[in-house]
Design a protein that fits this description.
The complex is a heterotrimer of chains A (326), B (758) and C (203). Chain A is mainly alpha-helical. Chain A has 15 helices and 2 strands. Chain A has a single domain, classed as Transmembrane di-heme cytochromes, Chain C (Fumarate Reductase Cytochrome B subunit, Up-down Bundle), CATH 1.20.950. A two-stranded antiparallel ribbon of chain A has the order 1-2. In chain A, helix 2 packs antiparallel against helix 12. The model of chain B has no long low-confidence stretch (mean pLDDT 92). Classes of the chains: A mainly alpha (326), B alpha/beta (758), C alpha+beta (203). Chains B and C meet through helix 3 and helix 29 of B and helix 1 and helix 6 of C.
Chain lengths: 326, 758, 203
């Protein structure tokens, strides 16, 4: 049809969307593997349970109590809803099969190595290294670095629990477990801030331009790969934050045990899923920011990147900066 | 009960309940208040297929184990029991032979019962007619049946009628004097039966002797104290024989003379000082008046192991003394259980810090007031068999053994003669040698019942586990009903019928209580001249012990063998009649069943009945029935159990069980605060707790909390380090005015209130 | 050679005798000097106030066969005795809470007074059998409470039960008592004690 602008392209559909497709495949594979690992007994139950939660009932008792036999009613009243629908398999699975995790990480590593060799590495030719431009403000640097530190710490302490047999328990491991909760709580605002300031897809809404706003919001537009990273960070970070917070906040006591235990089990499942998937995206982020493109690491600390680097690899950032100056 | 057949105590025992085929419980909650004893109920249910029937205004933990439950309106037990009797007499389920031989006055009861049809009972009590019929049929046809009650039946303005109605029911069915039957009143606190037997009450000397001149004379002789000296302790001889104030209304003695307060007859003076030795006076009705009275006293002394919350309640700042008393573990002595049996307790630790045992506190007080010698003389005496008079045998007494022996020596009315310290200790040391159901001993304890349940007529007697049982000889603990009310009334013989004497009795029929004049004729023996010289005036004051001994030889009970009386001609209501509580939710029934006439000089206080009931239509402004009761983890006034962290954790706050429908009508959410207003003008602020155990016209509040008063936190008054973990409003701040016509027990189970969202 | 018989310890709470007197939970807290926030044993009442439906039951660790808590613990701090009692090592425990997620009965308890709401080391009913420390030492007493099994005494909760609703002991003896009660009651009894099939399967 005439009148609709169409991007000049002689690329195939595949090469245009290869980022989405490849990541999508990886995600599907990972999720399938996660669900196999978790061996949820009754995925149908989980689905209906989640629907129920949105209706406000978190107890997990899907069948009305009156429809069950008196014996079953009494058991449900004392011990909670049907236990074997959601536990202990997930946790037992993680305990028994934790030795598989390094293999998964190894597979991911191999995949990205292959990608490195297949797709190569983009580099920027820098002849005037001193000609730098201030890209990241102090605030932005602080948030990004803090985010990296916290996420790394959470990764280490979180998986220290999973690999408890290697740590052997004891007071050091208990300390790591305790700090996982504390650091996790403190990561919530950081995640939120980074989600907001990294919302670069502003062609969806008009964002105010100007030096002040660009000190807060990151400049530039997203390429598909980076957009996926951002979306994964937001989505799975949200799941981790929500489930982790709820697990921490709903302290199990004598009184509330029956009402909350099934919900807490579901939250644990979500938390594990979030952590497994976000670990994939951590590798993916490292690959896309550092491996597939030769990054300029000092830039994250000083905030300044060489102009030529920007011209060759990040022309969208440069364009925005020029617009600002006007 | 004492007015029905002679003794007012539990007639059987807890273990004996396992022999019952039907257990009907009126206004008692043994699952909460006697949890260990309740296993006997459950075993009866399990092993004997006993039916448990619970009649209670709310669905208690006991009701949860019941086969039949009736939710009765508070204060309407008499109509219910009449309803049962109506059906029993109509269908001929009663034991006519038993009634003919051993009961007087049942005809009038039968007449009254005719009026109480199931429909009428349903209107008054709120229990459906078919439920009444079902319960009656089950209970009447499953014999032996035992009838249990506790405070739910007694704490009403007609409590003394209630507690006569229940025996009448049992008498009609012939359930008295049999194993598995009886009237089993469950006493509450540890050793309350012992305290009752020692009559820490204001209307009688120890052992229920009353306050007559003869009783005082007997005690003066037995204590070795000069009668004139005793008389001199009182303002006048009239006051010596006058009943004193009760625990329920002592404060009237302080407040009399103020506007609106009941008048008193206290020899022209108000009460000035109060000494409390281990009593939770913050758990008595009308707390606002108690507080006012405390503020107006000149001297308050509180002796308790924990700080008595009266000290926190009062605003009085001077002359308030708190004495640390020792607990039961720091002293030894005998205690009496609800089944009239005694056990011996041993000291396990010396009194700690500065605390003193109760007796040491009293001895110190007696020393300073100048009568220590007279106070303790009785423990140095023993009865001389040659003169039938007490003589001094030692210079220093051994506590508590000599005190126990003194009691055994003197108290004959309830037959404590056999309760020497030595025998009681032997029982407690050999408690594994007794059967739990019957109480019979084996091995070294063969021939005795555990704890020697009184009456234990002589030093060799085995104890009487089941009262009024004529299927046993007196030597084995059997007996008939007591001859306490004379030989005849209105031309009808009050002695038991022919052939209804205990087994192996020399006299096969009814016989009067034994005294010096009739002993030879009744027992059919001849006394020697010396015996005639030594013998006491009657079996209650016989220091020589000859009457008891001769009676045992002849197989007869010293207190006679009479009929139980369904009609008490000295009471305002000769047969029990229903009267609405002073604060009744049914104005129409108040007109039909009004309260008693006002009673002047009721334990020295002019007490209101009909004038209070008709003062205004209480049900209009206060439409909700107020029920009080207990919790399993709390005890009495609660200061001891609320200071124990694990017990306090279970119920950390004062609350009110309220029906969700009723709460919704007032906009009160589950866990929100609410006000309860009482007709006395007081109010408390408590937390609402939704519960299905109460219906929409009543609420329930537990009685164990104190420390807050009408919304004000008074726990700052505690001395440092003594504040309990759990504090709250006292239920008795909002209990209503109302007292039993005979005993003056407060009507805490029949009050009204108004609720409001806070 | 006579066949060796090893006792297998089990709990059983008879809900037709339990009156929610909470004697068991208070006795346990008192005997082991537990902090107030921990309830190793708790009494639950269902359908309160509803005629003929109300019942109560005392719940603590069931010491299951194939205990799921032991299976999911990432640091393997549990050990199961030959008589079936499941115990754990508080020094190794990292407080991750997996055992609580896995337990069908909610037995693991966590102290509520940690900083930032942390859980700390897990605590649960030991059937009065102490822990891995030296038997009856002060350290064992402090961490796990009394060790009554080593002295041949009944666990304190069942010893204190007012109505003998709570029984503990070798499973054959407990089952025998249960069978007798069932027979004498003669009606309205379910097929198995609550929780036994989840906890013990067919063993």
């Amino acid at each position: 049809m005439v009148g609709i602008p169409r991007m000049e392209t002689n690329k195939s559909f595949f090469s245009q969307n290869k980022a989405y497709i490849l990541v999508g495949l990886g995600f599907v594979a990972l999720t399938y593997w996660y669900f196999w690992l978790a061996s949820i007994f009754d995925i149908n139950y989980v689905y209906h349970f989640i629907l129920r939660i949105f209706q406000g009932d978190i107890s997990g008792q899907l069948e009305p109590l009156e429809s069950m036999s008196k014996y079953q009613q009494m058991e449900a009243g004392i011990f909670g809803p049907r236990y074997d629908t959601i536990a202990p398999e997930i946790i037992r699975a993680f305990e028994e099969r934790q030795s598989l995790l390094p293999y998964v990480f190894a597979v991911e590593f191999v995949v990205f190595t292959i990608a490195f060799f297949v797709f190569g590495r983009k580099k920027a030719k820098i002849e005037h290294p001193k000609d730098t431009v201030l890209v990241y403000s102090l605030f932005q640097r602080f948030v990004i670095l803090l985010n990296i530190v916290l996420m790394v710490y959470l990764f280490i302490t979180g998986f220290s629990i999973t690999f408890g047999n290697i740590t052997g328990g004891g007071s050091v491991a208990r300390f790591m477990r305790w700090t996982h909760e504390v650091v996790g709580l403190s990561w919530i605002p950081i995640w939120l801030i980074l989600t907001i300031i990294a919302f670069k897809d502003h062609k969806l809404f008009k964002r105010k331009r100007g030096t002040f706003w660009n000190k807060i919001f990151l400049r530039g537009t997203y390429k598909p790969m980076y957009r996926i990273n951002y979306l994964a960070y937001v989505a799975f970070g949200f799941l981790l934050v929500l489930s982790g917070f709820l697990i921490w906040y709903i302290f199990p006591t004598r009184e509330n045990y029956v009402e909350v235990i099934q919900f807490r089990r579901l939250m644990l499942f979500v938390h594990f899923m979030g952590s497994a998937i976000i670990s994939f995206f951590i590798f993916e982020t490292i690959y896309s920011y550092v491996i597939s493109v030769k990054g300029y690491l000092p830039g994250v600390i000083t905030g300044r990147l060489p102009r030529e680097y920007l011209e060759q690899l990040r022309p969208d950032v440069l364009e925005e900066m020029e617009q600002e100056d006007k | 009960m004492a007015n029905t057949w002679g003794y007012g105590a539990m007639t059987n025992s807890l273990g004996d309940i396992q022999n019952a085929k039907a257990i009907i419980i009126f206004g008692a909650n043994p699952a909460v208040n006697h949890p260990v004893g309740f296993q006997h109920f459950l075993k009866a249910k399990e092993r004997n297929n006993a039916q448990i029937i619970v009649i209670d205004p709310r669905y208690t933990k006991t009701a949860a184990k019941a086969d039949h439950y009736a939710q009765i309106r508070p204060g309407t037990d008499i109509p219910f029991m009449y309803g049962m009797l109506h059906l029993i007499f109509k269908n001929g389920w009663h034991d006519q032979g038993f009634v003919d031989d051993r009961v007087y006055g049942m005809d009038e009861v039968m007449e009254e019962a005719k009026k109480w049809t199931p429909e009428k009972v349903e209107d008054v009590t709120g229990i459906p007619a078919d439920k009444l019929i079902q319960i009656t049929r089950v209970y009447a046809k499953s014999t032996p049946g035992t009838l249990i009650w506790a405070m739910g039946l007694t704490q009403h303005s007609i409590g003394s009628s209630n507690t006569r109605m229940a025996p009448i029911l049992q008498l009609a069915l012939g359930n008295m004097g049999v194993e598995g039957g009886g009237c089993n009143i469950l006493r509450g606190h540890d050793n309350v039966q012992g305290a009752t037997d020692m009559c820490c009450l204001s209307h009688t000397l120890p052992g229920y002797y009353g306050l007559s001149k003869g009783s005082w004379g007997y005690f003066a002789r037995s204590w070795g104290v000069d009668m004139d000296w005793l008389k001199g302790r009182f303002k006048s001889e009239e006051m010596m024989g006058a009943k004193g104030f009760t625990l329920a209304r002592w404060y009237a003695g302080v407040l009399a003379g103020k506007p609106g307060e009941d008048k008193i007859k206290n020899a022209g003076t108000n009460l000035k000082a109060l000494v409390v030795l281990g009593n939770g006076i913050t758990a008595i009705a009308q707390q606002a008046k108690v507080k006012e009275a405390l503020d107006n006293l000149e001297l308050i002394v509180l002796a308790d192991p924990f700080v008595n919350e009266a000290a926190v309640l009062t605003d009085k700042k001077d002359n308030v003394f708190i004495l640390p008393a020792a607990t039961q573990f720091e002293t030894s002595g005998s205690v009496t259980a609800t089944n009239r049996a005694a056990q011996w307790r041993n000291k396990v630790v010396e009194p700690m810090y500065e605390s003193k045992t109760d007796h040491d506190i009293m001895f110190e007080l007696a020393k300073r007031l100048g009568f220590y010698d007279e106070f303790t003389r009785a423990m140095l005496l023993k009865d001389d068999p040659k003169t039938a008079k007490p003589v001094k045998v030692k210079d220093k007494f051994q506590w508590p053994e000599d005190a126990t022996d003194e009691i055994a020596r003197i108290i004959k009315t309830i037959g404590l003669t056999g309760w020497t310290a030595e025998r009681l200790k032997k029982h407690s040391e050999n408690w594994h040698m007794f059967d739990t159901v019957s109480g019979r001993g084996h091995g070294p304890m063969k021939g005795e019942y555990y704890g020697l349940p009184w009456p234990c007529w002589t030093e060799k007697h085995c104890g009487s586990p089941v009262l009024y049982n004529i299927n046993r000889s007196v030597a084995e603990g059997g007996m008939g009903f007591r001859n306490r009310f004379g030989l005849e009334h209105d031309g009808v013989d009050l002695l038991a019928g022919k052939g209804s004497a205990p087994k192996h009795s020399a006299n096969k029929d009814g016989y009067p209580e034994i005294n010096a004049k009739n002993i030879e004729a009744v027992l059919g023996i001849t006394l020697t001249a010396e015996e005639k010289n030594l013998i006491g005036k009657n079996w209650k004051v016989d220091t020589s012990g000859i009457i008891a001994q001769k009676c045992m030889e002849q197989g007869m009970a010293p207190y006679g063998n009479a009929k139980a009386r369904a009609k008490v001609w000295t009471f305002p209501d000769q047969i029990p009649m229903h009267r609405e509580p002073l604060h009744s939710p049914r104005e129409d029934l108040v007109k039909e069943y009004p309260a008693y006439a006002d009673k002047p000089n009721h334990y020295r206080v002019d007490t209101q009945y009909i004038s209070k009931q008709t003062e205004q239509n209480w049900s209009k402004e206060f439409p909700i029935n107020l029920i009080t009761g207990r919790l399993v983890n709390m005890n009495g006034a609660g200061v001891e159990t609320r200071a124990s962290k694990y017990l306090a954790k279970l119920t950390p706050e004062m609350f009110c069980d309220i029906n969700p429908g009723l709460a919704a009508n007032h906009g009160i959410r589950d866990g929100a605060m609410m006000w309860i207003h009482s007709p006395e003008g007081t109010k408390i602020k408590v937390k609402a707790k939704y519960s299905q155990s109460v219906s929409e016209d009543r609420v329930f509040i537990p009685m164990h909390f104190a420390g807050y008063f009408q919304g004000e936190d008074r726990t700052g008054n505690f001395p440092q380090g003594t504040k309990p973990y759990a504090n709250g409003e006292s239920a008795n701040t909002v209990t209503n005015y109302g007292y039993d016509i005979i005993t003056q027990i407060p009507e805490t189970k029949g009050g009204l209130c108004r609720i409001e969202k806070a | 050679m006579s066949e060796d018989y090893y006792a297998r310890m089990k709990f059983y709470c008879d809900e037709s005798r339990c009156i929610q007197c909470d004697g068991c939970s208070v006795a346990c807290a008192e005997a082991h000097e537990l902090p107030v926030g921990i309830s190793r044993r708790k009494v639950i009442t269902l359908n309160e106030g509803i005629e003929n439906k109300e019942f109560s039951m005392s719940v603590a660790c069931m010491h299951c066969t194939d205990a799921p808590c032991e299976q999911v613990c990432p640091v393997d701090c549990f050990y199961i005795r030959e008589d079936g009692i499941v115990l754990h090592d508080k020094d190794v425990c990292i407080g991750c809470g997996y055992c609580l997620f896995a337990c069908p009965f909610g037995a693991p308890q966590f102290p509520q007074d940690g900083a930032f709401g942390t859980k700390g080391a897990m605590d649960k009913c030991t059937m009065c059998a102490g822990g891995p420390e030296e038997t009856n030492s002060a350290k064992e007493r402090e961490l796990y409470g009394q060790n009554r099994i080593s002295e041949g005494k009944v666990p304190v909760c069942a010893a204190m039960c007012s109505t003998k609703a709570l029984l503990v002991g070798d499973s054959q003896d407990v089952a025998q008592v249960y069978r007798e009660r069932v027979a004498s009651r003669g009606h309205g009894v379910q097929s198995a004690p609550y929780g036994w099939d989840t906890a013990y399967g067919n063993k």
